[in-house]
Amino acid sequence: MSSASDIFCDNENGPNFLFHNRGDGTFVDAAASAGVDDPHQHGRGVALADFNRDGKVDIVYGNWNGPHRLYLQMSAHGKARFRDIASPKFSMPSPVRTVITADFDNDQELEIFFNNIAYRSSSANRLFRVIRREHGDPLIEELNPGDALEPEGRGTGGVVTDFDGDGMLDLILSHGESMAQPLSVFRGNQGFNNNWLRVVPRTRFGAFARGAKVVLYTKKSGAHLRIIDGGSGYLCEMEPVAHFGLGKDEASSVEVTWPDGKMVSRNVASGEMNSVLEIPYPRDEDTLQNPAPLECGQGFSQQENGHCMDTNECIQFPFVCPRDKPVCVNTYGSYRCRTNKRCSRGYEPNEDGTACVGTLGQSPGPRPTARFPRPQAAGPRAGGWLRALTPACPGCSCCCSGFCLSLRGPSGLNPCSLQSPTQFCPLTMTVIPPSSTMVWQLLMWTMMGTLRSSWRGTMAPTWF
Ligand SMILES: [Ca+2]
Ligand SMILES: [Ca+2]
Ligand SMILES: [Ca+2]
Ligand SMILES: [Ca+2]
């Protein structure tokens, strides 16, 4: 919401708080005006991520036996507002204890894991993938969590980390409260060939920089944002690492912003892909130096202040749009062209100019599926709507990201075209036995989380 770090508190027994940082040491609660106060629900786990990759932090949280929320951040008249895009399946109430947002298969798309506690009857855990679409709300797809389903699991806490250092995130669940159950450690079984990068910002004293914001600029897929979270679950917290799954893309540069406003940008060499990058807190003399040239990647360019910013293609290339769609609209990391059909306020023409549809950021309105063009051919940009609309593939095999791989229809004809929504391959988790080091690490995190959560709520420093 501002350049300084705000705080979101997902509360039980009362409305949530969204403390807007006024930058002078004071905060003002903007939860109600931003639409995230949710006064009648009981939050039990919250995570922050940029699900639609527009550079604005979104909020996902679980309500105890209440509807789960996925709030996209919009801005209207300079003020942040949030809009719940949770699908009926996603929002289905459950006895939730932890909400985890992570890219388990490193395909660029974030997964959301709900850790539920089976305390009166079975309550399976749930896993969703939130698929970014270029010009609309992300698509929420339910996945099969495999062994991590744990229908009888008394899940109390959960964390995500890379235990074995292979670049694939692992999931650890603790159980208890009403019955003793052992820890579970899971790893995903897909995405091993995808690129990844783990970024670890440090404070000036060398500690993990909780509250830091990390933006990774990539060669093809724009900017990816992570928050080093200080909260996230009931009595637990996530690893203080910004983990990026990149699919086949590569990083070009990384930017870290600390909660005090200090910022560092630097290029990422191709030899640094698939590794852990430590980013120390900048020394004063570092910030005085002339900014080094940055490789910002597609859709972004380096500004005078030395940082990567969204390229405004509509200004830089005034004739970028074709004659039948002459109106250029700048978007984060890209742009789009639309017809000049006139629509009333709050509406804009759809892609082919045949109808007016509600604009993003306005009140819910119709579901966005109708306003997207049908896929014609798989383009190079895997993160856009092409993937979201990739259809079910009867008679084909499909890869982990949902693309049809082998075609068995008549030659030249793709039997996987059109038809029903995407059928993604399930992201199945398999059990791996925990080592004593893992158990210690988990205990440390859960203890730290307990201290932080002693006021019966979950909180996370956040950036808007
Ligand atoms: Ca966003
Ligand atoms: Ca993923
Ligand atoms: Ca791993
Ligand atoms: Ca742009």
Automatic annotation (TrEMBL):
One of its GO terms (molecular function) is calcium ion binding. Gene3D superfamilies: Laminin (2.10.25.10). Pfam families: EGF_CA, FG-GAP_3, UnbV_ASPIC. GO terms for biological process: axonal fasciculation. Keywords: Disulfide bond, EGF-like domain, Signal. Residues 355-378 are annotated as: Disordered. Residues 310-357 form the EGF-like calcium-binding domain. SMART domains: EGF_CA. This is Macaca fascicularis brain cDNA clone: QflA-23504, similar to human cartilage acidic protein 1 (CRTAC1), mRNA, RefSeq: NM_018058.2. It comes from Macaca fascicularis (Crab-eating macaque).
